[in-house]
Design goal:
single chain, alpha+beta, Proliferating Cell Nuclear Antigen, eight-stranded antiparallel β-sheet, four-stranded antiparallel β-sheet, 11 helices
């Protein structure tokens, strides 16, 4: 969070970023009632918070006034006639890859629990000491919640639970805590609610593997959509605006099915964030291009290369079943797509079973089918 992405617009300000390992994502949403100022323009930038600024922020007292200025290439903090300005810096590659996964996981997460302050304090006292290598589970007993190494029905799985200690200083001052596990338990998100501010804190399933290594959103990037459609979206949207597919479809005269595909691809590109409190996407323009995302994903590049070299052969095509042969390095792989189930004979699929996104062979088959 020392190098946050800052989005200002629609009467809201968001600060978001990752931990060094990219296994922890955090976002501060300053809501409309949480600040008093003027939004001259809407936009997104990313800056480096240096030690001097962090030190100054630590000196701010509860009743002090702080003036924040956000520009295209800088963010400034102003207090008592003294200003601290932080300049724009490049986004780390890990962050770019992680952002494409986090929003995808958010959109597939489901609300599970709401805890009041007392319940949250009791819960966080049950975090085990030291670095825990095994999964822990959130369990409710009566009116109390606790973290346990024992799994039971309807539990929330948490990997690398020691990372939650980062939240402990904030728990005594929250209004409530909401918990959103991913549908396949690939991440879990804690939403700390304050009066006019929300703090989103999400951790990947495995602490040793960050969001940047997941590749869960790769399938959205194989969609071939015209540049004119993306341009229409860009003309339609502004920072922090809620993305309404139906409204855009009506106003732009575009088929709703294309808009839904567009939302998936734009999320994977980083142009859409996801707000769990509203259960929907919001717009923010990140300072990188789609080509850079493609260059950072070896599986996506591998799939494109397989198609360019004509190494994908569809052997069976039915309404709900696809079979294909894909040439590998000295070996031939077999891909089967049946309904929502997909299989490949490659080592990647055998090791991960689809939990970290599709392998390059499955991606190549899916893209070829879309183009037939």
């Amino acid at each position: 969070m020392k190098d946050p992405i800052v989005t200002a617009g629609n009467e809201q300000i968001r600060f978001e970023g990752f931990s060094h390992c990219a296994g922890v994502y955090a976002r501060v949403d300053v809501l409309e009632g949480g600040q008093n100022g003027e939004f001259l323009e809407n936009g997104t930038t990313n800056v480096d918070f240096n030690t001097s600024l962090i030190s100054e922020l630590g000196k701010i007292k509860k009743n002090d006034s702080l003036v924040l200025s956000v520009g295209q290439k800088e963010v400034g903090f102003h207090k008592d006639g003294k200003s601290t300005i932080e300049r724009k810096v490049p986004l780390p590659n890990k962050w770019i890859k992680g952002l494409t996964t986090v929003q995808h996981y958010f959109s597939e997460s489901e609300f599970a629990h709401t805890l009041n302050r007392i319940q949250a304090l009791q819960l966080f006292k049950t975090i085990p000491n030291g670095k825990v290598k095994t999964d822990y589970f959130l369990i409710k007993r009566g009116n109390k919640y606790l973290f346990s190494p024992l799994q039971s029905s309807s539990t929330v799985c948490i990997g690398g639970i020691h990372r939650l200690r980062l939240l402990q200083p904030l728990i005594p001052i929250i209004n409530e805590l909401k918990i959103f596990p991913h549908k396949d338990m690939q991440s879990v998100t804690f939403l700390l609610c304050f009066n006019e501010l929300n703090f989103v804190f999400s951790i990947s399933r495995d602490f040793w593997r960050g969001f940047s290594g997941e590749g869960a959103a790769l399938e959205s990037l194989i969609e071939d959509l015209p540049d004119s459609l993306i341009q229409s979206f860009d003309n339609f949207s502004y920072a922090n605006q809620e993305f309404n597919p139906a409204l855009m479809s009506f106003e732009e005269g575009i088929d709703i099915s294309k808009i839904e595909k567009l939302s998936s691809k734009l999320s994977a590109m980083g142009l859409l964030g996801y707000d769990l409190t509203k259960n929907g996407f919001f717009y923010r323009r990140l300072p990188f291009k789609l080509e850079r995302i493609l260059s950072l994903n070896p599986r996506l590049k591998g799939a494109e290369k397989l198609l360019e070299e004509d190494k994908v052969n569809i052997t069976l095509k039915k309404d709900d079943e696809i079979e294909a042969k894909v040439e590998g390095s000295g070996v031939q792989h077999y891909v089967i797509l049946k309904g929502k189930n997909e299989k490949c004979t490659c080592t990647w699929f055998s090791k991960n079973q689809g939990e970290r996104g599709s392998c390059k062979h499955i991606l190549a088959v899916k893209k070829k089918i879309k183009n037939i």
